[in-house]
Design a protein that fits this description.
alpha+beta, four-stranded antiparallel beta sheet, 13 strands
Amino acid sequence: MARAEAALHGTTVEEVAFHEVGAIDSIVDIVGAALALDELAPSRVTSRRIPLGHGFTHCAHGDFPVPAPATLAILAEVGAEVEDGGAAIELCTPTGAAILASCVEAYRELPPGRALGAGYGAGDAALPDRPNLLRAILLEPSEEDAAERDAVVLEANVDDMPAEWCGHLMERLFAAGARDAWFTPIVMKKGRPALTIGALCARELAAAVGATLLAESTTIGYRQYADSRRLSRELC
């Protein structure tokens, strides 16, 4: 959220002033989502296409068209799939967009699997054509679906990248869609200490993760190979 606000206001992350994010409902949204993800520890989080809504909304800076500029900036950063949603109201706020952008790996209909539970969160606004509810469903993927979860591993060896870049690089890899990312210490030519940068992602996101690896590290190339994984449960 800070990166999106900084870009929109032409300032730095350190100078960003949050307004609505400091409200109690935003704090509850953020802390509640973090607690749910920590408690459930899903192997993968998916979501339907994000309904945005249309019309106008009022915030600290005045009236803005829906979706709000910050919402679009956050969702565009991770390439989230969106739709109008068919309601003249703000259906996705910047806070909601940030939560989704930080944990959703793929946008799809409900995957096949065994339902383990569900949770609901209700909003204050009354929508004319639907309940104002957010539902999370915990699934244990079917064997057939889990077997089809092919993955791609991208790796690059670097011996000239400052250590201070590592945290930022990992953050950007996850934002690009990596399911996991890691650094492995190695030794390269002439005995130089170096790192292998690794990232695991879905096949359809390999190009985006690879482009991030090239843009945010000092490597001039990377290797890529197919892999597979087995999941125990999934949050949709």
